[in-house]
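This section describes the prediction task in plain terms. A model, or a person checking by hand, is given the sequence of a single protein chain and must write out its three-dimensional structure as a string of tokens. No templates, partner chains or ligands are provided. The sample shown here is typical of the held-out split.
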Amino acid sequence: MSYVGIDVGGHYIKAVLINEKRILKKVKIETGRDIIKTVLQIISMISDDNVKGIGIGLPGILKNGKIVRLPNINGFENVNFGEIIKKKTGKEILLENDGNCMAWGEFIFREKLNKIVCVSVGTGIGGGIIIDGKIYTGRNYASEFGHMIIKSGGRKCSCGAEGCLEEYVSVRAIKKIARKLKLGDNLVEISKKAREGNKRARKVYEIAGKYFGIGLANISKILDPELICIGGGISNAGSIFLEPAIKELKKQTFFKVCPVKKVKFWDYSGAVGAALLFKNARKR
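The expected answer:
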């Protein structure tokens, strides 16, 4: 028996086929303008007759199988995403916020922890909270870490607020920092230069990392988790981003902070967590 997990991102859609023991297949495709069409395409590439269900992580707010809002992907408000995919595939579908999927996967594979937090840094900033073996969603809007205010009267965010974390730590935010330092906005090249010791390139990630550390300090002081896991494309910059973030986290926190680690499955952590939703079987 196997399951498909799909992680829908602003730039890429990633999917895995897994059974109880391991990942059997992995697929990564650029996110097209029609995400339903792209998701169906990726299912046809990775699914088979033994697949019992398909878990899908989406970067926004969901309710009763419908998309309420995807802040970084336009045109999908009030779409009954789960029902559309179910009709097209004939498979059982579970939907969840993408950050919650990542957190759930980390929880399953990191045994003996009761409270963990995951933060995903990419096109936007998502997150997930696991408390006592359950995904914590509050009334429906918990874990929107990217939209915590870290700077009063700061930059206008796509959500409508001002000073949100993801306006200072995300792909677009880091590109802004890089352009100000006259480095262009090719983050692959900039991170490569930073790892090679280029001071201006390192400065890009030091600035972003400091803002991220402020966000982590807020999370730590509110939730006091046993572990914070970091995922998403920006986290692939590694220590040049995470070291200044952890330094700021410790500076801004009055107690000993929990460990901060990279997610286990790197780019596919959200997809793995989506497939593992069937271990929880919580309808969304």
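For orientation: The first helix runs from residue 35 to 46.
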